[in-house]
What does this fold into?
Amino acid sequence: MPRPAARVLTLLELLQSGGTRTVAELAERLGVDGRTVRRYVDQLIDLDVPVESVRGRYGGYRLGAGYRLPPLMLSDDEALAVLLGLVAGRRAGLMTAGRTAGETASAKIRRVLPRHLAGRLDTLLESVAFTDRPGEFASPDAGVLLTLADAVRHGRPVSMRYTGGDGRRSERTVHPYGIVAHAGRWYVTGRDPLIGEDRTFRLDRITDARALPGSFEVPADGDPARRLLSGFATAAYRYDVVVRIHGTAGQIRARLPAAVARLEEYEPAEGEEFGEGGPGEGGSGADARWWRVLVRAERLDWLPPALAALDRPFVVERPDELRDLVAAFADRLASFARRA
It folds into this structure.
């Protein structure tokens, strides 16, 4: 059975979650009677916690406005969960632009972790491999993120300044349907009322977001995640890349995941030329075969390192620019290898 001190702390947690709590609700949550709840409230008041009594039909207790709460108290499991979430979010790029806040929060929690738990956490982090690099993606401004989230919740239009992928800046108005975190970036999907079409915007390219008067109705099919993925699938890209790669689907997916590339089985024609990386070379198990890999991209510079990391035979079908980049990348690697 929890001790009275533990129940008092639980009462404080319930009150700091916001709003007015009735005596009956608090009694049920704490497993005590109403008189005991009132005694616990008196104990908080004795500790200079400004608990206010609210009279009336929906009366009860609440914390005074502007009260600075005492230090956050977490169990070992809760502290570990929060710290792992901060680490994973930072590694995946799903952090706000104020990265210092994430680092200081992590440091504060680590300082109060028991030594044995901190040691177990260090062991876990040393054992985990991340496929991404910390800081690889630009992160959104916290104020922009919160403004858009509030507008989504209340169905309010938002005015914002947006910098497109081509560097052009514009003043935009959007009816935001929702915020989506995808592949290390934050996006907001919604309708541009000026042109009457749905649009997707990257949050790290948004500045000066502010809610406007009025409201709008979200369409029944306004699921933001589905709209984001559908938009990616139909968007126009600068390059349509086709590369034939010999290996297993798992090997290819390790460097070119489904969010980046589409795989099609490929059966070489009889007598088809493959140069130095023929279909029978570089054995990688019974499941190895030729695949046609299709990638839509705005830039090609990241593909030569990705193809080299596969360490599998490949043939570039198109575009010609990719062949030139692969050849230049191979020359650089060869020059590095020749250095004494």
Remarks:
- The chain has four domains: 4-63, 76-127, 142-219, 239-338.
- The two ends are 72 Å apart (CA to CA).
- The chain has a mean pLDDT of 80.
- The chain has eleven helices and eleven strands.
